[in-house]
Amino acid sequence: xxxxxxxxxxxxxxxxxxxxxxxxxxxxxxxxxxxxxxxxxxxxxxxxxxxxxxxxxxxxxxxxxxxxxxxxxxxxxxxxxxxxxxxxxxxxxxxxxxxxxxxxxxxxxxxxxxxxxxxxxxxxxxxxxxxxxxxxxxxxxxxxxxxxxxxxxxxxxxxxxxxxxxxxxxxxxxxxxxxxxxxxxxxxxxxxxxxxxxxxxxxxxxxxxxxxxxxxxxxxxxxxxxxxxxxxxxxxxxxxxxxxxxxxx
Length: 249
Description:
Layout: H1 12-17, E1 20-33, E2 36-49, E3 53-57, H2 64-71, E4 79-84, E5 87-88, H3 94-103, E6 105-108, H4 120-129, H5 135-148, H6 164-176, E7 182-186, H7 194-210, E8 214-218, H8 222-226, E9 230-235, E10 238-242
Parallel strand pairs: 3-8, 3-9, 6-7, 7-8
Antiparallel strand pairs: 1-2, 1-4, 4-5, 9-10
C-alpha cells in the first residue's frame, strides 16, 4: 500500500476485511444564530477502517473543522453518534473526553500552537508532561520523534527560532508522541508555501505508512486529497464519498 505520491489503493475485498476504527452515525450539528438555528450539517454517516488515510474536502464554512473537532471529542454533535473502536465519544464526560484526546487522538492544526517559552523538544513532550510524567522520563521520546520529523538538530530551539515548516513538523511530532489511534489534521499545510506544504504532506504520508496510523485530513489542497485512499466531500450540509482519481492532480 502506497499512500504517498503513488495513490495506490487497496481493492474493495481487502478493505472489507479491515477493522473499522471510527464509525459515524447520523451526525448533526446545529448552531444557534439569533433566534433561529443554523444547521451546519446533518445525517452524516461513514466509517473509517484502521490504517486508512482519508481526506475531507469542501468549501470554507462547510463544517470540516467542526467535524474534526467532534471526531476528536473537542466538540459535541447536536445529534447522532461517534464511535472510536467501541468507545462512544458523545457519551464521554469532560474528563474522559480530555483523556481520550490525550491518549487516542492526535491533532494537527493549520496553525502550530507551539508554546513560545518552551523548546521544540519540550513542546513535543507536552502531552506526556500533562499526564504528570517527569521530563527525564519523556525526553528520550521527544528527541526520538523530533528525529523522525527531521528536526533532531533543532530540539533545543524555541518556536520563534524555527521556520513555518519546522514549526508544523514539531506540531506533528507532538500529535504523535502519545501513539494515538487517530491522527486528525485540519488544513495542516494551509499556512505554508507550496514547496514546504509538499514536504509536510509527504512527511505525514510517510509517518502514516511507517506507524500504521489512521489519518483524517481536512484540506483545500485537492492534489493532496487525491493521494489519499478515500475522499469525503462535505457540501451544503451533506457528505458524499467521491473517487480520489476524480480530483485534479
